[in-house]
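User: Hello, can you help with two protein structures?

Assistant: Certainly.
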Amino acid sequence: MSDKHVRKHGNVSNRAKPTNASERKVVYKSVLDNPFKISWPKIPSNVQNMAFAGLMNMLNGVSDFNEMKKKACRQKRRLVSEPDLNRKKRKVEKPTSLQGTGTLPIETSDGQPSDTLQEQMHQEIPTSTQAPVILEHITVGINEVTKKLEALSRALREHAVNKGKARAENISSSTQVVFVCRPDINPEALVSHLPSLVAACNSARPKDTPSITTLLVSLPAGSEVSLADALGVRRAAVVLVNDTAPGYDAVKDILSSIPVLVASWLGTGPTTQASILAATHIKQIRTTAPKDMKAAKERRQQGRSAAKERRKELAKKAAAARVVEHTAEPSGS
């Protein structure tokens, strides 16, 4: 048996009909849990805090770059839209007065911005800002990280099936760490697929690369807001970081204690043991049942008979209506 704590699921179904509580009793039904389910790795809170601090240090400077990039985009949109806003002014004022000042952007006859507008755009929008190097080694967002893990797992499986003869462009030659703000995600089902994907990537790894793995790290509660601020975005629930990222060596020793997720039924990875079976986990579902089963069956049978009679009556009425419509139609000449 598993050592997990009992969790009660007592929500009323939306399809449940209102019944008299005095006529029913509480019962528990035993069901087997899914043996192919991959659980989240158990990470101590101090390790989570140190990993989060190391991740924040690696993301230093990303927020400033993204904010400057957003500001430049807003300026570009404003400069491009100014000729449309000044069309009414050009109808009232003389064209020579607009061209003589040299301050307002002028639009040509073919709808393209004039030289004055282009000069203002190049003067106000910075173009020489270099992006931080860390952006080349990270992937942000649930969807983007999921796509990357799926592509890696697919490439590894094809590489294993073809015995190394398949194309290996999508196979990563570095360790990848998936940081997830699991306590801050609501509903948690949005990231429930990540343990299975990470285990699939680790289990399909070639046996000659045992040190290259994909780790899954849960961050402490409240880390999503800080992570989004460090990246300069609205939301950041999942971040994937390669071990080639600058500053990764500072958290390498911390992440070495995190367990590696594997799927034993895949059986191709270096750390996979296909002979190990998953422990049996029996769940108890809390529900209700009638106190008098015989009386409940009789009432259910009576309800079915009554519904059958109603359907027959409706069919008779519909047939009678069709006969009346047919007789009321005038005969053709």
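That covers the first. Now for the second protein you mentioned:
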Amino acid sequence: MIEPVISGQLKVMLGENLNCWRNVYGVLKGQSLLCYQCQEELESEDEPLLVIHLKKDTLVCLSETDPVRCQSLYISTRHQGQDVTYTLTAHTPEDTQRWTVALWQHVYNMSQWKQCCDHLMKIETLRPRKPITVKQGSLYHEIVTPSSPGEGLVVPDLSVEIRTLLSSYYKER
């Protein structure tokens, strides 16, 4: 929904006047067909000249004129409580066909997604956690023992104390 589906040159009929056509650069993205005066306006992030809002129930159809000439593409939708119909055409019959198929597929996809396409869902990325260091070996390997007598920590010989404690335990019984 956030990536452009199709883009390119179109002609849009403005108003009711059949002779008032405007060349635009169209971008089908999300729930809109954005129409800019030129491609440079899109790249400079200017406001579009015309925004055609698309919904799940938008109708897209082709005129039944001579297919050798460029057919008109009609987009009927409801915007702010009013039914609105836009008339578009592309510069070649192949481009008109590409736009028609893209619009049909886009409206179909929106109908399949139902309410999920009404609002873009924000997907947050988790911050990387600090790696957990796993200790290798046993507790025996963690005891610090000096490499030679007199260096570092001195670990007392506990075996003598243990034997003394054990022998006193058994003598008392």
